[in-house]
Amino acid sequence: MDIIKKITRRSFIKKAIITLVSLELVYVFVNLLKKGGETKVSSNLFAAGDIDLFEKGRVYPFSTERFYLSRLDDGGFLAISTKCTHLGCTVQFKNSDNKFLCPCHASAFNKHGEVLAPPATSALDLYNITIENGEIFVDTATPVKRAKYNSSQITYA
Ligand code: FES
Q1: 59 and 118: one domain?
Q2: pLDDT tens, position by position, 83-92
Q3: Beta strands in 2-156 (DSSP E)
Q4: Which residue of 31, 58, 99, 120 has the fewest CB atoms within a 10 Å radius of its CB?
């Protein structure tokens, strides 16, 4: 009778250890899959359209994607975030004034996203642009912060 109890205990302990090790391996495997998935979501390319759709010197809203596509006088492009760099309100481009205005505290920005009037102190964020076969793609996943505008931020076809 005593021998049967020992075998049962040994068997139970062995199964418990195997179960714990298996659960640990499943946990590690699931976490590896999660981390792999996170690194794949690093870009979200939005097809804005063919470059010929956009006239030089004009600014086009993409409200649902929360950016403006600014085509500069020299033909280059900037994808400018609608989020004000002061406290995050949504800026709007006023064609009549040729600038972005923030309705919350009256900051103003030019077509390059540079600050024209405070309280904002940094230029509007940008989104990276790629142009393939004449079509514009804007990566809306990650806004690029910047203190000021410089010409290296412009994308050309
Ligand atoms: S949030 Fe835009 S000026 Fe304050």
Answers
A1: yes
A2: 999 999 999 9
A3: 45-50, 58-62, 67-71, 77-81, 92-94, 99-101, 108-109, 115-117, 126-132, 135-144
A4: 31
Instruction: Indicate if 10 and 33 belong to the same structural domain.
Output: yes
Is the same domain home to 20 and 54? no
Same domain, 49 and 35: no
| Residue 150, SS3 per DSSP | coil
Choice between 117 and 40, residue whose per-residue pLDDT is larger: 117
Segments forming the whole domain that contains residue 137 = 45-153
User: What is the residue with the minimal CA distance to atom 4 of ligand 1?
Assistant: 105
What number does the ligand 1 atom closest to the CA of 84 have?
Answer: 2
**pLDDT tens digits along 6-52:** 667 777 667 766 776 666 766 555 555 555 554 445 689 999 999 99
Pairs from 10-18 (Cβ < 8 Å, separation ≥ 24): none
From 81, 86, 101, 124, the mutation candidate for ligand 1 (largest count of ligand atoms within 8 A of CB) is: 86
> pLDDT for 130-152, tens place per residue?
999 999 999 999 999 999 999 99
How many Å lie between the centroid of ligand 1 and the Cα of residue 90?
8
Distance CA 93, CA 50 (A): 22
